[in-house]
Amino acid sequence: MRLILERLELVTMAGEEMNEDYPVEIHDSLTALESSLGAVDDMLKTMMSVSRNELLQKLDPLEQAKVDLVSAYTLNSMFWVYLATQGVNPKEHPVKQELERIRVYMNRVKEITDKKKAAKLDRGAASRFVKNALWEPKPKNTPKVANKGKSKH
């Protein structure tokens, strides 16, 4: 990571001094990449400042799984980028299958999380609600109230 940042800084510095080293059109992209890599580097430093065991002790098993999956996905994604920078097609490398495998597990964890967040049905309340909302016909044996009023003739 540090090596990539150093090389990128050299390229952007060279670009500021001489625009002949790389096309001017990609200067903004290189600057954005440098910024993103710097942010990733800062996050990695933060994560590495706390021991893994100390971090995982504070989390429930589902959160632990999320941390492990995100870490594995991030490392494999960075390796994907490294392969691409070395001229290797990452789509033909086993890293593609590894990323897909991790993505499958991430989807499983998401399903579990969504199930936990889903509203629980109170069957008794739902039953009472439906029962009271339905129209019920009056029994046929109920006496009709006689019309005591005058007729309209």
Automatic annotation (TrEMBL):
GO cellular component terms, A-Z: cytoplasm; nucleolus
InterPro entries for this protein: Exosome-assoc_fac/DNA_repair, Sas10/Utp3/C1D
Coiled coil: none
Function text: Plays a role in the recruitment of the exosome to pre-rRNA to mediate the 3'-5' end processing of the 5.8S rRNA.
UniProt subunit comment: Monomer and homodimer.
UniProt entry keywords in alphabetical sequence: Cytoplasm, DNA-binding, Nucleus, RNA-binding, rRNA processing
Name of the protein: Nuclear nucleic acid-binding protein C1D
Compartment(s): Cytoplasm; Nucleus, Nucleolus
GO MF assignments: DNA binding; RNA binding
One of the GO BP terms on file: rRNA processing
Organism: Rattus norvegicus (Rat)
Transmembrane segments: none
Similarity field: Belongs to the C1D family.
Gene: C1d
